[in-house]
Amino acid sequence: MKIIRQIEVFAPDYLGKMDVLIAGGKILAVEEQLEGGYEGVEVEELSGEGKVLTPGFIDCHFHI
C-alpha cells in the first residue's frame, strides 16, 4: 500500500493538493488528508510535491 502526499490532482477537474491511497495497482482513495488506521499493513509514504496526477491519456491519433 502507498500514500502519495500532497500531489496536485486533476480528475479531470482540478481538485488541488490531495493525498492519494494506492493498493494493488488501483487508486482506493483521494482525500485532502488521509489519516492512519492501517495497522498491520505496511504503508510506503511518498511526497507528491512538484508532481501532478491526471487521468490516463489515450493517443487516439491514427491514419487510415
Brief summary of the model shown:
GO terms for molecular function: beta-aspartyl-peptidase activity; hydrolase activity, acting on carbon-nitrogen (but not peptide) bonds. The chain is mostly beta strands.
Protein architecture, described:
- This protein has 64 residues and is mainly beta.
- The chain has one domain.
- The chain has no helices and five strands.
- Strands 1, 2, 3, 4 and 5 form a five-stranded mixed beta sheet that branches.
- It is elongated, with a radius of gyration of 14 Å.
Q: Any descriptors?
A:
five-stranded mixed β-sheet, beta-aspartyl-peptidase activity, elongated, single chain, mainly beta, EC 3.4.19.5, Metal-dep_hydrolase_composite, 64 residues
What is the N-to-C succession of helices and strands? EEEEE
- Domains (count): 1
Find the count of extended strands (DSSP E, 2+ residues).
5
Shape assignment: elongated
Q: Output the radius of gyration.
A: 14 Å
Q: Count helical runs.
A: 0
* Global mean pLDDT: 92
Beta-strand residue fraction: over 45%
User: Helix/strand-derived class?
Assistant: mainly beta
How can the largest sheet be summarized?
Answer: 5 strands, mixed
- The N- and C-terminal alpha carbons lie at a distance of 43 Å
Poorly predicted regions are: none
Q: How much helix, percentage-wise, in residues?
A: under 10%
